[in-house]
Amino acid sequence: MRGCVGRGPNSLELEHEMTFSMGEPRPATPAGGGRPSREEAEEAVRTLIRWAGDDPAREGLLETPKRVTSAYAEWFAGYAHDPVAMLERTFEETDGYDEIVLLRNIRVESICEHHMAPIVGVAHVAYLPYRRVVGISKLARLVDAFAKRLQIQEKLTAQIANTVHDVLQPRGTAVVIEAAHQCMTTRGVHKPGVTMVTSRMLGAFRDNPSTRRELLSMISYRASVTHDD
Ligand SMILES: [Zn+2]
Model-level pTM? Predict the structure, then answer.
C-alpha cells in the first residue's frame, strides 16, 4: 500500500524522506485517518509521563518527548518500506543452484502490538530457489521491513514467508523466528528466559519431510565459520 501522509511535513516524515533517497516508496497512510504532527506525538508522550506519575516539566524529562518520537521513527521505520519492492531485483545466473539458501540468525527487533513492548530475537529465512536468487542482504532487510511495525510474532513470521514465496516464486520457503517478548518478561506473568518459536513452511518445506528435516538441521548446525562482527 502506497500513499501520502495525511498532514504537512514534520521531522518524523523528514527522517523517512531520507530513507526514500535510496529509492524507497513513501510511507503508507495509516489506516483510520491522518497522521498526527510531531508536536501532537510529543504531547502524547507528556501525557504518558504524567500517567506514569512523573512531571514532564522537570529538567531531566524536558527533552524526553523529542527523544521518544525520534526513537519511534526508528522502531517503526518498517511502515516506510515496501517489502515486495525489496525482493524484485533477482539474479538468474546461478549455474543451476537449486539447494536450500538459508540466512540464519537475523536479529529481529519488533514491537508487540498488544503492549507496545519490545520483541527481540532471531529469524532464519530459507528458500529453495527456482531459476533465480535474491541478494542475501535483501532477506535481512525484508525481516526489518515487517519487524519495524506493531506486530505479533505469528503474523510477522507469516508475512515474511508469504512475501518471499509470492515474489521469488521459489520451490519452497521457510521462516523460523525465536524471540523473547518483554511484555511477558518484564510485566504480566514475569517469565524471563522464555522464548517463543514460530515457523511457516511453504511449498517443498511443507510438503516434503526430508527437505524440512534438512532445513532444521542446517538451522541448528554449529558453524565453524567465524565472523569479524
Ligand atoms: Zn505483548
Answer: 0.83
